[in-house]
Amino acid sequence: MARPNEKLADALRTLKKLQDKHNGVVQSEDLKETQRAILVEEGFLRPVMKGWYVCSNPRDSDGDSTAWYASFWSFLSGYLSKRFGKRYCLNVDASILLHTHCTVIPRQITVILKQGGTSTLKLPHDTSVLLYPDEKNIPRNRVEVNGLQALPLPEVLCRIGPQFFKNNPREAEIALGLIRDPGDLLTVLLSGEGMPSAAGRLAGALRFMGRDADADRIVETMRRAKHTVRESNPFEISNPTLGNSRERSPHAMRIQSMWAGWRSDVLSILPKAPGLPVTPDEYLSQVDERYVADAYNSLSIEGYQVNDELIERVAKGNWNPAEDDHDKADRDAMAARGYFQAFNDVKKSIAAILSGENPGEVARKSHHHWYGELFAPSVTAGIVEVHQLAGYRSGPIFIRNSMHTPLPREALADSMEMLFNLIAQETEPAVRAVLGHHLFVFIHPYFDGNGRIGRFLMNAMLASGGYPWTIIRMKSRAEYMSALESASVGGDIKPFARFIVQEMHALESR
């Protein structure tokens, strides 16, 4: 008879194959009953609904939402395909979120069926799917996006009403930015009896974004076809965040839009930059004085168990993994050593910035080096695999309990290039610091260390304006995470900007 650990090992081997094949979504029929039972009991599977499970981390608590948010779209694809084949289509609002690669998990998705009854599928963590039959509104030429049947983007834009532009201006801008030729829109607008109201709305939206020639083409073509078009701007934001962007990546467009949309909010909250220090050495000396407190708080936020004694021992070199087995095996000591090395490398970058180099260009060429220093000791000790030093991550990653999904691997190069371009072009240090930090973490380019590198980036950009090195305190961790979530999911950067000011003042008042 197989021992319990052998049963678990056998079940895990099967689960690994299923996880790779179905992106973390498993059906009961894919497993033997004994395998399913032990995987659920040990926390490797979590139930979604009868017969459906998602892969999870056994260390997650019962209320942890990470596994579900990570598998949301994969579950939806698998479930709808299993039940309806291709005889369904996501509605207009859900389709546009797929096309723009929205990073926020929606509370509810609406699915149109060719046949069947109306029902609501209740899912974990207050998410749901509304299913209803409406065959006449399912287009013949559907497209598949992330394994889901969706409306083609030109048809989506011709169908969305003015309320979408008011409630979701960023998604609307990105969707319009993906339309390179207005002829794609006109093909839909001229079909059947024509869509003059949609034509007027889209022409007004394109003109608002600075695409006058495209707006004119829509209006003139519709009028030649004998349609009366009344152009109107459906956006309620005062200025476009993308304008006549030639960017092709929806992910890079999102970074550009967030920067432009949030810039004025940051400037309204952060104090005016003091300016570059007259004596850079004095500034760097003050940075040194904050090393121990910064290392303790930054590492503690990420879950490492460190104290001042360990940090001082590492900094002074009283740490010898080559000869001391305890030091070699100490994950926390490795993290502390890596932080010390990276901190010193960031100081070199700050020195370059204080000497007059462009802050964005310094960060662009230095951030991989910071990352390498951060994890070099762990690689040497065999705790982290050496390939992780190669650069940006090679697969997906998820933020614990967040409804925000970091960008996919294929979006990282374009998005990071856009981020550093924006930092390099920005004239206000406060904006470089706050948005640089948030958008770095929003992208989450590495498998690990994103929070630490994001805080290093923030402080390098604060230095570019003469602001003090600012420590995000461990006791403020919950507020910190909440402020990041407000920006990533709620679209509001103000709580995060106010939080940075709070932490800056807390340090200065000590």
Mind explaining what this structure looks like?
There is one protein chain. With 510 residues, the chain is of the alpha+beta class. Helix content is 55%, strand content 8%. A 4-stranded mixed beta sheet has the order 4-5-7-6. Helix 4 (92-99) packs across helix 5. It is flat, with a radius of gyration of 26 Å. The mean pLDDT is 90.
What is the element layout, followed by pairings?
Elements: H1 4-22, E1 25-27, H2 33-41, E2 45-49, E3 52-55, H3 66-84, E4 88-90, H4 92-99, E5 108-113, E6 119-123, E7 127-133, E8 143-145, E9 148-150, H5 153-159, H6 162-167, H7 169-177, H8 183-189, H9 196-208, H10 212-224, H11 250-269, H12 280-289, H13 291-301, H14 308-315, H15 325-329, H16 331-354, H17 359-380, H18 412-425, H19 429-443, H20 450-463, H21 477-488, H22 494-508
Parallel strand pairs: 5-7
Antiparallel strand pairs: 1-3, 2-3, 4-5, 6-7, 8-9
Helix pairs in contact: 1-2, 4-5, 5-8, 7-11, 9-10, 11-18, 11-19, 11-22, 12-16, 14-16, 16-17, 16-20, 17-18, 17-20, 18-19, 19-20, 21-22
- Largest sheet features: 4 strands, mixed
Strand count: 9
The first-level CATH class name of the largest domain: Mainly Alpha
Count of the domains: 3
- Total helices: the number is 22
N/C terminus separation: 65 Å
Overall pLDDT, averaged? Answer: 90
Shape: flat
Rg calc = 26 Å
Oligomer: single chain
Strand content: 5-15%
Secondary-structure-based class equals alpha+beta
Which strand order does the major sheet show? 4-5-7-6
Q: What name goes with the CATH superfamily of the largest domain?
A: Fido-like domain
